[in-house]
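Appendix C: a fully annotated inverse folding record. The material below is reproduced so that readers can follow the format used throughout the book. The structure is listed first as tokens, followed by the designed sequence.
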């Protein structure tokens, strides 16, 4: 049944790639401009999302080194699309762990993936989607059997917090 999670991932990703947003939020545009201009110094650190811009910069450099000649905005948008589709797949796994049927789990994951708010964020170029992916992985680690160690959950939560500071609000969970 878990292999359907991969099916959900690829199906959602194909739809996201087919219909990317053209109406960007300002923060994604700002991240992309900073990456291309080198405005944030050698480390590209932003105080509220320490690792998002350096990650985007490394992916942008790798894409251009591979000869793709992409804008940083496109690379950040692709990162969000992959993370958004992966979040839907992990959500499917969470529902299965909670004992729902495969049909209900897939319906709920797809409703989430194609909801208006998530679609907008998942096809944009912002730092929220990658952070939310790691938070969703944290939930999966907390509900799955066998349970994960607190260190594993803490490392995944740290990744979410380094991508966006608001993920720190998940800590009480």
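Designed amino acids, in order:
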């Amino acid at each position: 049944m878990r292999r359907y999670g991969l099916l959900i991932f690829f199906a959602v990703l194909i739809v996201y790639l087919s219909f990317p947003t053209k109406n960007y939020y300002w923060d994604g545009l700002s991240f992309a401009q900073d990456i291309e201009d080198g405005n944030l110094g050698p480390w590209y650190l932003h105080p509220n999302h320490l690792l998002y811009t350096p990650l985007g910069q490394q992916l942008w450099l790798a894409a251009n080194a591979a000869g793709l000649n992409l804008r940083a905005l496109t690379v950040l948008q692709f990162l969000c699309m992959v993370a958004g589709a992966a979040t839907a797949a992990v959500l499917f796994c969470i529902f299965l762990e909670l004992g729902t049927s495969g049909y209900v789990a897939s319906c709920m994951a797809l409703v989430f993936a194609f909801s208006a708010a998530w679609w907008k964020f998942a096809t944009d170029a912002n730092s929220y989607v990658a952070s939310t992916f790691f938070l969703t992985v944290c939930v999966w680690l907390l509900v799955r059997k066998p349970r994960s160690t607190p260190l594993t959950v803490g490392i995944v939560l740290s990744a979410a917090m380094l991508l966006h500071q608001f993920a720190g609000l998940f800590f009480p969970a």
